[in-house]
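Handout, page 2. Input:
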Amino acid sequence: MNKLSKKLKIFFMTPEYIFAVLALVFGLASAVLTPQLIGNDENMHFIRSYALTDFEIAHQCTLPKDIKDRGFYAIYAQDKPDYTFNTKPVDENRTIETDCGSASSYNPLLHLPPALGIEVAKVVWPSTGGMILLGRVFSVLAYVVGLFFIIRFAKVGKWLLVIIGLLPVMIHTSGTLTGDVVNNLIVLAFISYIFNLFVLKTVMTKRQLGTLFIFAELLAVTKPSNLPLLLPILFLPKRILPVIVLLNKRIPLFIVRMTFAVLSGLLAISVLFLWMKIQNTSALLDSASARNPMMENPLFFLEILFNTYINPDIIFGGVSYSDWLMRGMAGSFSSF
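Output:
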């Protein structure tokens, strides 16, 4: 009995285990109980994830007609969308050339978990219902495992990460087909890593510096709006900055800090434009395909942020939209 109570005590004092158990239970419940393709743009993410299982990354792709019909039905059908669990096997021999949808602009990394789930479903449960379900399950597993290790290696704010990770909107998102799961994990991992550097007592090693640059690249391949997260690099503590000597002269630490920030930014921008180049030069790219304004103009997110949170001229229901939005976020932050 003493051993059991001791183990339970350790468990309830370990934030990553608390998170993993609760997130797994509620995440899987969300994946199973939430009507299929009712998530935010979930039908487009379903199309994108399926296309990746056939190694197609362009705006135009070849899909089984069953997949195309199920994925696009929620948008283009005039009747009510079909949210039923479809168990009919997909006919992979009946294919069609089609637009892969608005989610095709995202880097394949973002849809890797649901794509793996769909690939497994092709073997064990080859219906659109089975593919959507297993894609959701793999997204939940990726979310739980990823944030488990982020919390474990975080030196600051472990319980805060648990609270953020267990927010209903985060759990609900993990239980749908979306690229936001990987994006959220990368963002939370980077923020946690930056905090780890701020409390570091010794000078940064080459490995830690390399990890910082890798995070800069990862932020760039997810969403351009993540790039402002690199700004805290400008405020890294002096005690962790390495001493650099050039021509027998010691480089001032503020220049070292600025150099790290500039290099991180250049790496991020280079990766971002490389992906944009790949998208624009693909042989399968159709000029009539849907475009992502954020990919075409990375600074467009500033206008979006202004209109979303600050602009007092947008009126909704007789009151300022920003006021309505903030009250909505505080009062009912998730439909789940």
